[in-house]
Amino acid sequence: MTQSIIELRRVFKSYSPSTGKKLFSREENKPPVNALDDISLQITAGEIFVIVGLSGSGKSTLLRTLNFLIQPGSGDVLFQGQALGSLNAREMIELRRSQIGMVFQSFALFDERTVLDNVAFGLEVSGVSRDERHKRAHAMLEKVGLAHVAAQYPHQLSGGMQQRVGLARALVVNPAVLLMDEAFSALDPIIRRDMQSLLLVLQAEQQRTVVFVTHDMEEALRLGTRIAIMEEGKLVQVGTPENIINAPASPYVRHFFSGVDTSRWQLAESFADVWQPTL
User: Fold this and answer.
1) Each residue's pLDDT tens digit, 191-212
2) Which of 82, 151, 161, 190 can pair with 157 through a Cys bridge, CB separation 3.0 to 4.6 Å?
3) Start and end of every ABC transporter domain (predicted)?
4) What's the pTM value of the predicted model, to 2 decimals?
């Protein structure tokens, strides 16, 4: 049986419906918003697990509980069998540095650092010598096709190239898990597809665990080993692309792949009620 690397057990997270100064007294009586509502799931080592949902469905909150950037209100998050809630601040920082990498939509590169030093940053923080971290950073830049711009600065690069740098920076420390929050959504469609292809190539080589958040079902179907669909803080369906296409749990789930060519994932028996042979 394939081992799970991340497990969530009945995780809840609620937020106040308003922030800052209340302008209307009736806001005080609004119930809290359940960003995560009784989430239980297991993420298997080596899979690309994609989380899909509309804006406000809780998908980014769920992603950030996996490395405790957001702590759940209740429930347990386990990494390799250890409850993250049991770690102290120093242990949590070390886990994020060495075991759980993250790539953001906004690139989050350091403008004053060269591309090479941006990629090497995590190794520098971990105390790796300059020569060694530059060697490893350069090797990772080669993997993402950017070795030729190692001496340049982020502002000299296109958006797609900047996102490749962000991906290289996350991967160079060789994390067991890579969290990606809408990582490609700000890119042009052609560049976005190139980045998807790059991720799939790197995944075929390295077989790490990737948790990928998107609102784009076509992207989810292309990348995902399994897909989780969220609605108002709840997991409404988790399954392989084939499972979700051929047996959507609700009209909400079906809505996500309306307009998407799903023929690649549809099973022959799913057409049985549509087509019958002439006798």
Assistant:
1) 889 989 999 998 998 889 999 9
2) 161
3) 6-257
4) 0.87
